[in-house]
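Batch manifest, entry 17 of 40.
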Amino acid sequence: MSTKIIVYGFDRSPPVRAVLLTLNALNLEYEQISVDTQKGEQFAQDYLKKNPTHTIPVLEIDGQYIADSHAIIAFLASKYGKDDTLYPKDLYQRALVDQRLHYENGGIFHGVVKNHIRPFALCTLSRDAAEAAVKAIKEVYNVIEAFLIQNRYIAGEHLTIADLSFLSTVTVMDLVAPVNAENWPKLTDWLVKLKKLPYYEQANAKGLKEIEEALQTALEKYKK
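Output type: structure tokens
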């Protein structure tokens, strides 16, 4: 009997898309059940039983639940990977992947996406605060460029779950402060390369398009 995999969340969420990218990279079949945090669906009692922290995504496998995208993608790569390419067993290489994921969680998702881009999208920022948001994004680009000077990919010489997770957030930041080859040549090449993944459109571009549409008013306002 095959294991049924269910993902709870919606495509606009970068952490959800990180999980979708990983599932597709592993060529796994799954069901996706929408949980729209903008409608407060994460506070439904049935969902809180699955994840008391009321965040998305949540992964369900055989009646067991895992929350947090980084925990989920590490689990998926460890359990279903045909080899350890996506999440290396070598302790140093794994620590490098983990470090990148910790940086993405604190420095990118919470530090920039939640603290800067969300209020930017709601048009609640002053012009100075909007400029600070763009500056924060560019500082992240500088860090990622440094990672990519050291290695061809985010955490080594081949694709790992760190790349898939970073892709979900970098593509959001790129909507607000476009990556360019003059300032970030390595990051530009990396982004072009990952957008060519055969599952990119299905797993990332769809949700990203929804974010782009939601950002249009803010982009017009702050770029005047």
